[in-house]
Task: inverse folding
C-alpha cells in the first residue's frame, strides 16, 4: 500500500504517525535506537530507565521532606 | 529492591511455565520508551502450569502483594485453584500473573497473538505489537493510550 510520508525528526513517517509524534511529544530517535537493540538490551534499557526515574523521584521526595 | 525482570522471565522460560509477556515490558520490547515498574504476564491457569509457576518463582521469595500480613505464594497455595489473577511481590520486582487480558482473552488467545524472542540461552513469548495495541486500547487509561502512540510509531520505524 502506498502511503504518503513526511519528514518527522529526520525519519520518514506517515502523516498520521507524524501527528501522533507531534501531539504526544515522542522522541522518534529514542524509539528507533531501542528497536535497533537486541531483545535483551531492550528489556535491560527499560529497567535502567525505570530505576533512574525512581532515583530521581526519591531525591525529589527527600528534598520536599527537608532531608 | 532491585528489579530484574529478565531474571524472573528467564527462570519461567527455563522451567517451561506457559506464559506470554504483556503490559509495559512487552511494550518496551516493541520499542516503547515508557518506564514500567512491574512485569505483567498472562499465564495458563491450569493446575499443572501453576505448580510449575510456583516452583520457578520459589527462589524469588514471592508473596501476595495485597495480603496483610504477607503470605507466600508457593505450590500449596497455587494448588488451591480458583485464581483469576495472581499479584506478587518478589525479590526481583513486582510480578502480575494474569489469567485474562482485556480485549484479547486468556493465555491461549494471547499465545496465538504472540511473537517469540530469542535471548540466546532461552526464548520468551511477547504479545505481538498489534495485539498489544488492541489490549492497551481496551484498557483505555491515559498511560495505555500513550503506549499505543509509541507502539504505532515504533511499528512504522521498524519498517524503515
Result:
Amino acid at each position: 500500500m502506498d502511503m504518503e510520508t513526511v519528514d518527522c525528526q529526520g525519519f520518514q513517517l506517515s502523516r498520521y504517525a507524524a501527528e501522533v509524534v507531534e501531539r504526544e511529544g515522542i522522541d522518534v530517535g529514542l524509539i528507533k535506537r531501542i528497536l535497533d537493540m537486541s531483545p535483551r538490551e531492550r528489556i535491560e534499557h527499560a529497567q535502567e530507565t525505570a530505576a533512574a526515574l525512581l532515583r530521581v523521584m526519591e531525591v525529589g521526595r527527600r528534598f520536599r521532606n527537608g532531608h | 529492591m532491585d528489579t530484574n525482570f529478565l531474571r524472573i522471565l528467564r527462570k519461567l522460560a527455563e522451567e517451561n511455565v506457559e506464559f506470554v509477556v504483556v503490559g509495559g515490558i512487552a511494550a518496551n520490547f516493541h520499542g516503547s520508551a515508557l518506564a514500567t515498574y512491574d512485569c505483567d504476564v498472562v499465564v495458563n491457569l491450569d493446575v499443572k502450569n501453576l505448580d510449575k509457576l510456583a516452583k520457578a518463582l520459589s527462589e524469588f521469595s514471592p508473596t501476595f502483594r495485597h495480603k496483610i500480613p504477607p503470605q507466600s505464594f508457593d505450590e500449596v497455595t497455587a494448588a488451591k485453584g480458583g485464581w483469576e489473577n495472581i499479584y506478587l511481590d518478589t525479590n526481583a520486582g513486582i510480578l502480575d500473573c494474569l489469567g485474562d487480558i482485556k480485549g484479547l482473552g486468556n493465555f491461549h488467545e494471547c499465545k496465538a497473538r504472540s511473537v517469540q524472542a530469542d535471548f540466546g540461552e532461552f526464548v520468551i513469548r511477547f504479545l505481538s505489537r498489534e495485539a498489544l495495541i488492541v489490549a492497551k486500547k481496551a484498557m483505555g487509561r491515559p498511560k495505555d493510550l500513550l503506549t499505543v502512540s509509541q507502539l504505532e510509531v515504533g511499528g512504522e520505524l521498524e519498517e524503515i
User: Anything to note?
Assistant: Chain B touches chain A at residues 2-6, 9, 24-25, 28-29, 31-33, 35-37, 117-120, 124, 146, 149-150, 152-154, 156-158, 160 (CB under 8 Å). The mean pLDDT of chain B is 95. The beta strands of chain B are 19-22, 38-43, 63-64, 85-90, 93-98, 100-101, 105-106, 114-118, 123-127. The two ends of chain B are 39 Å apart (CA to CA).
